[in-house]
Specification:
The complex is a heterotrimer of chains A (about 325), B (about 100) and C (about 100). Chain A is mainly α. Chain A folds into two domains: about 120 residues; about 170 residues, no CATH class. Chain A is built from twelve helices and two strands. Chain A has a two-stranded antiparallel ribbon with strand order 1-2. The longest helix of chain B is centred in the C-terminal third of the chain and has 32 residues. Chain B is elongated and about 55 Å long. The chains are: A mainly alpha (about 325), B mainly alpha (about 100), C mainly alpha (about 100). At the A-C interface, helix 8 of A face helix 3 of C. Chain A: Belongs to the CPA3 antiporters (TC 2.A.63) subunit B family.
Chain lengths: ~325, ~100, ~100
């Protein structure tokens, strides 16, 4: 029974990946990409990685999908020479077919199949029984949390997580740089015209906030944590933006900068304080570890949520 | 050979990576190339987590899980940056493929 | 015990049936409005049946409350999004007709 479910899921995932690449219309590829992410999230659950499943469904499928959808709108517009929008012709322009000479296609296809065989061989030769599960489990009582994945993320390998928040910040800055001189959409609070959309967003905002806070706190003992909470809080910002409340552009510039950097900054201060008091970088004192991790997680979640909202607000002008 | 969850998903991960690699080479439109890189990444992550499942003791190995969560966020940030570059190119030149691939 | 299990199976099968019907409608109906109709109606009902089945299976009051909230929130978001899609389509058609006149 297990094998049946797993094989079905695997075949579906592979099929959807194929459709992403081969669907004749670009819009179809993007919609299939959403479905692909959700199938992958189910695969993570089958593999027992519930944290990864939440992250995948929320970030890789949800957030990325929203950005893709918005880009799709951009790519289906035709620009005239003076950069003005001429007309929306999403359905009128035929998308250029990806066609190649058959010899090129054959060579690439054979190369890919060879590559596939080699990588399967390599994967199956990875020796069994490695892994650090036993060490992770033995140190769990000292880490301040009960969930091993959170312990790895925020305690054992806090260094990685700290730098990861830095990567998100770098990504944000790079997007600002690549976006040219265009600023955010004009600041202003002009709620959506549609009463139903407005109402739904207002209902979802507190629910998302509550659920994010729950995931943040629950990360201590089960699947959840800073990233998952951050995406839910980021989703609040994105929803409000879609509804016309451009929250991120309304708050003052200095405040925005503080929001985006506070996670990275606090993490760094904490690390150096631990060094100053005689520990290693990110060596939490076991007595306060739980509390410190919760504070760090909260600030990191706020920063990541702000960064995701900023990316969305800047990309979708 | 015994076929279980690990075997199925590690095989899937290799196939997904190959599909993504093919997409990066063969797809022309920027968006499709970006999706292809994300699929490649998904293949790598699936491979990691299937190892964690195989080597599970009382619980699955948490280190690959943490690595994959970190990896997903970084991959999405990089893809968002790629999207912004692609949109910028499209805005400035009106192109949606690389010039030499037309 | 037996009766409860039979109930669960009936609820889950009914849910799957409605999902199947909704998907069939999505694939086979001719225009956007009837597709949306098939999708939202049948899928929400199917999800309700499956949620009821799972709640009965878990048989814990807190889990039931959570599953109920999942169902309500899904109802809300799917209703709003399909309404928005339908409204967009209608406005498109209206502006197209306006041009032709």
């Amino acid at each position: 029974m297990d094998i049946l479910i797993d094989s079905l899921l695997a075949i579906l995932t592979i099929y959807l990946a194929f459709r992403c690449m081969l669907a004749p219309k670009l819009s179809k590829a993007v919609f299939v990409f959403f479905a692909f992410g959700l199938m992958l999230a189910l695969a993570w659950i089958r593999l027992g990685a519930v944290d990864v499943a939440i992250a995948e469904a929320a970030i890789a499928s949800g957030f990325m999908g929203v950005l893709m959808l918005d880009s799709l709108r951009d790519f289906s517009l035709i620009f005239s020479k003076n950069q003005e929008r001429l007309e929306e012709t999403a359905s009128k322009i035929p998308i250029k077919k990806d066609s190649y000479h058959w010899t090129t296609a054959l060579a690439l296809g054979l190369g890919l199949i060879l590559f596939l065989l080699i990588s399967i061989q390599a994967i199956w030769e990875v020796p069994q029984g490695g892994g650090l599960t036993a060490i992770a489990e033995a140190n769990l009582p000292m880490s301040g949390v009960e969930h091993p994945v959170t312990a790895v993320l925020l305690n054992y390998r806090a260094y990685d997580t700290w730098l990861e928040i830095g990567v998100i910040l770098m990504g944000l800055l790079a997007i600002f740089a690549a976006g040219g001189l265009k600023q955010y959409r004009k600041p202003g609070l002009a709620p959506a015209q549609d009463p139903l959309l407005r109402k739904t967003i207002l209902i979802f905002t507190p629910v998302l906030f509550l659920f994010g806070a729950f995931l943040l706190y629950f990360g201590k003992m089960g699947p959840g944590g800073a990233f998952q909470a951050a995406v839910l809080w980021g989703a609040i910002g994105i929803l409000l933006h879609l509804g016309g409340w451009t929250v991120f552009t309304v708050i003052p510039r200095r405040m925005r900068q503080i929001l985006v950097t506070i996670g990275l900054g606090f993490f760094m201060i904490l690390g150096f304080t631990q060094m100053a008091t005689g520990g290693a970088f990110f060596e939490y004192p076991p007595a306060y570890a739980g509390f410190l991790i919760l504070v760090v997680e909260t600030l990191a979640a706020i920063s990541i949520a702000a960064a995701l909202t900023a990316i969305f607000a800047f990309l979708t002008k | 050979m015994k076929i279980g969850t690990y075997e199925i998903y590690s095989l899937t991960s290799a196939i997904l990576f190959a599909i993504g690699l093919g997409g990066v080479f063969l797809a022309k439109h920027f968006l499709r190339k970006i999706i292809a890189t994300i699929i490649m990444g998904a293949g790598v992550f699936l491979c990691f987590v299937s190892f964690a499942k195989r080597d599970a003791l009382t619980f699955a190995d948490p280190i690959p899980h943490a690595l994959v969560i970190t990896g997903i966020v970084v991959a999405v940030t990089a893809a968002a940056f790629a999207l912004s570059l692609a949109r910028r190119i499209h805005k400035l030149t009106g192109e949606d493929t690389f010039g030499n691939e037309k | 015990m037996m009766i409860k299990e039979i109930f669960i199976v009936i609820l889950l099968v009914a849910g799957c049936f409605f999902f199947l019907a909704g998907t069939l409608g999505l694939l086979r109906f001719p225009d956007l409005f009837s597709r949306l109709h098939a999708l939202t109606n049948a899928d929400n009902l199917g999800l309700g049946f499956i949620a009821a089945g799972i709640a009965l299976y878990i048989a814990s009051p807190w889990a039931t409350v959570k599953i109920f909230f999942i169902w309500i929130l899904t109802l809300l978001s799917s209703a709003t999004s399909s309404y928005l899609i339908a409204r967009f389509q209608r406005e498109q058609e209206k502006s197209k007709n306006g041009e032709e006149e």
